[in-house]
Amino acid sequence: MFKRTAVPPVGSSEHQARQPLNMALGVKHERRNNLEPHMPISSRVSNVALDISLALLLCSWSATLWAAQQRPEMVSMLQLIATPEKFDGKLVQVVGYLRIDFEENALYFHKEDYEHLIVNNGVWLHLGKEVCQKPVDLNLKYVKVVGRFDAEHGGHMDLYSGSISNITECSSWFNRKRKPYGATPN
Q1: Same-domain check for residues 91 and 38
Q2: What is the pLDDT of residue 67?
């Protein structure tokens, strides 16, 4: 029927004057809190438990989403070079041939790409000192790199097919060559 928008404060003369009229019209006052005093305590406890459960569910969902965003996508050098726009701005994990030198911190597709100076088959690396503790040990070897890929900036003189920055890992890949199929172990 009728719903009042403004409720006079309890105890005021206006409230006392309208109380019989409200009762006659069937108007109920809405309480300001959602825990009605006439509700059984079990209902109030279940409402609080439901609120807590929903809050925990929301927190776990957002934590899962954040963790998924922080997990690097495993890609190959070929994928980075062929479709750089697909990985632009993403956290990636990639394996390639590392060359660390003055104006040449790059990860190449193959050792031969470095030897023949095919820079289009490589990506520039923004290496931090804390990431590569022993760059001499990793130089001219196959390494695994984890960092954020940038398709727009190609490193020194913009020669490379993108760059990787915010590197969190730069570690040695396998140092042994595969034995030919059918070879007997020594």
Answers
A1: no
A2: 47
